[in-house]
């Protein structure tokens, strides 16, 4: 909290959105697996829910949570672009 979200790595940001891990792995493990597979946040953002949900620890609810966060980003960027 002291350093703010901007100080977090990409896997840490995704882990925060995931919220928790499972038995024997953390949200950070799952987030790292996603980014290892898809490379970047932008690439991850374009993946279908079933592919995201296939990663250990993600499942459908967490995949939907990530998709909602990505949609939030798209909408904010659209507003920024419109207002520029």
Helix content: 55-70%
Count of helix runs: 5
Number of strands: 0
Q: Assign the CATH class.
A: Mainly Alpha
CATH architecture: Orthogonal Bundle
Outline the secondary-structure elements.
Layout: H1 10-18, H2 27-38, H3 41-45, H4 49-53, H5 59-83
Helix pairs in contact: 1-2
Protein described:
- With 84 residues, this protein is mainly α.
- It has helices spanning 10-18, 27-38, 41-45, 49-53, 59-83.
- The radius of gyration is 13 Å and the shape is globular.
- The model has no long low-confidence stretch (mean pLDDT 92).
Summary of the model, kept short:
This protein has a single domain, classed as DNA polymerase, domain 1 (Orthogonal Bundle). Helix content is 67%, strand content 0%. It contains five helices and no strands.
Question: Which terms would index this structure?
Answer:
84 residues, mainly alpha, DNA polymerase, domain 1, 67% helix
């Amino acid at each position: 909290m002291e350093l703010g979200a901007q100080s977090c790595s990409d896997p840490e940001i995704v882990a925060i959105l995931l919220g928790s891990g499972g038995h024997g792995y953390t949200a950070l493990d799952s987030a790292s697996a996603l980014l290892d597979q898809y490379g970047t946040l932008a690439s991850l953002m374009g993946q279908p829910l079933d592919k995201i949900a296939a990663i250990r620890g993600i499942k459908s609810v967490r995949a939907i949570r990530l998709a909602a966060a990505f949609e939030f980003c798209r909408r904010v960027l659209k507003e920024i672009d419109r207002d520029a």
